[in-house]
Amino acid sequence: MQEKGTISIHTENIFPIIKKFLYSDTEIFLRELVSNSVDATQKIKRLASLGQYNGDLGELRVEVAFDADKKTITISDNGLGMTAEEIKKYINQIAFSGATEFMEKFKEAKDANEIIGRFGLGFYSAFMVADKVEIETLSYQDGATPAHWVCDGSTEFEISEGSLEERGTEITLHINAESEEFLNQQRLQQILDKYCKFLPVPIKFGTTNQEEEDGVDEEGKPKYKSVEVDNIINDTNPIWTKAPNELKDEDYLKFYKELYPYSEDPLFWIHLNVDYPFNLTGVLYFPKLKNDFEITRNKIKLFSRQVFITDEVKDIVPEFLMLLHGVIDSPDIPLNVSRSFLQADSNVKKINSYITKKVADKLADLFKNDRKGFEEKWNDIGLFVKYGMVSEDKFYDKAKDFVLVTNTAKENFTLNEYKDKVEAVQTDKDGQLVYIYTNDAEKQDAFIQSANKKGYDVLVMNSPIDNHFISQLEQKLDKTSLKRVDADVADKLIKKDDALEHVLTEEQSTKIKAIFDKAINKPAYRVELESLNPEELPVTVTMDEFMRRMKDMAAMGGGMGFYGNMPDNYKVIVNGNHKLISRILEGEDEGVQAQLAKQAFDLALLSQGLLTGAELTEFVNRSVSLI
């Protein structure tokens, strides 16, 4: 038997196109070919279970080998094999008509995965790294004869009688000069670990040594010897393929350490297992976030039938859930997945919604069944919960019952609990409930103490997402606003009807304002005289709540760039009822008046961390002289 022919793609230059445009992702050739071999072994096993194959299955496995001297890589299996006619059907006819169509459709493709998936080029990814590819195969069918196929990277192929004596397929790649990096033990092991670590059929890659007991020594202690065994690179039955009732906590933690060997133990996990209306399995872990968004992203691995696809799962997993770690596996997602597919596929959207609900239900159960344990974990999961609430309304609707807010006394409250706690004291004259918060309790301690003296409670809002979370609470909660504790003096944070009266005359007020304006002499600082409690500080520096919040969001990249570019402006609140102000007015030396005003202003700056450099040095020297 010998036959020559032309691969049915109606073009002479398709292989250079494949090599050129898939070059950046060349390593996936091994994933594609090993996956094909695994499919072949699973198919023969399936045929045997259906009674359509009665021969001896043997030990089903796939083997990867390389020969650096001959510059070849071989992928072999003992699956169902192919006849010469099947080679013509499955190998020689690429799933598109010509280079023109290919190039037209390729314009929208973003990477090699997408090209392979769109054009059925799984096997032909071999030509990304090989000058010549050979197939030796023998079909499981009775009376089948072995077949040999060879192609040198042109559209010409040759089929002849093969030499394989056992059922299965052996693909040999003759590696081209540009791809000799793959003729390396470590490089191939790296690729296999990345894509094939959890395939359902054993993958052999060379051999390894392991210690085995070899009797006992004279003292009765066991002896060991080194034995060469097959190097099986994969776990064929990872935990996400098992039922939750088969697993213990130790199994989940051990698997987590396999995935992330340098990470702390996770807080808890969710085992996903659904077969309708889509198929999905997996395990999602809640890591300790440490108030950090970025370094924890892209830690969820996406698999399709235990073949690794990608760790960029944005369209499958909601944005806020990308802070989780773990694996998800769905046969409904094709191996060669493209971004456009993910965005458009209805199953992907269902999976996205299902995972969101599953996570919300898990958190709600934890809160309901173990409030104390939930509170102990809050420092680690609070960022994640708030991020989810800001990102998705559906998640907000579920999480609003278990999200916690924490005050400076380190007490935790649900939103409803906190409303009940502060409503009586922190409702202003217009019926608006005001929550007061700090984003830096140490730096803003003076303001917190002033608020506490008035009976106000202060929340701690210092996570990276809290600027957005605060805005969301104001939108969602009825007649409620939030003010940072240093946005105004304590007497003015919550407007009441019992405002204090000025002890200064209009003339004195004008004079004291002029003294401070001259002493400060900075356009960014606007002096205002207020009638405050005499026990409050003589001078307080604040920034308008709205402006400060917009600038904070701009600094986080929150789309407020206009505000971020505006210069800082502050309000200098002079407490007209403080005894220092009376002392300044009573003084006759303008120099002393200016010095006292500047000292009081600098103290206010110092309390806000706004006094630095030469001005701080000047303040220290002035303080020494006044002692």
Automatic annotation (TrEMBL):
Q: Which SMART domains match?
A: HATPase_c
Picking any one GO molecular function of the record gives:
unfolded protein binding
Glycoprotein in keyword set: no
**Where does the record place the Histidine kinase/HSP90-like ATPase domain?**
25-179
Q: Which SUPFAM superfamilies match?
A: ATPase domain of HSP90 chaperone/DNA topoisomerase II/histidine kinase, Ribosomal protein S5 domain 2-like
- Identify the residues that bind ATP: 32, 36, 77, 82, 97-98, 169, 339
InterPro entries for this protein: HATPase_C_sf (IPR036890), HATPase_dom (IPR003594), HSP90_C (IPR037196), Hsp90_fam (IPR001404), Hsp90_N (IPR020575), Ribosomal_Su5_D2-typ_SF (IPR020568)
Question: Which keywords does UniProt give here?
Answer: ATP-binding, Chaperone, Cytoplasm, Nucleotide-binding, Stress response
PANTHER family for the chain:
HEAT SHOCK PROTEIN 90 FAMILY MEMBER
Give the family per the record. Belongs to the heat shock protein 90 family.
Its protein name is Chaperone protein HtpG
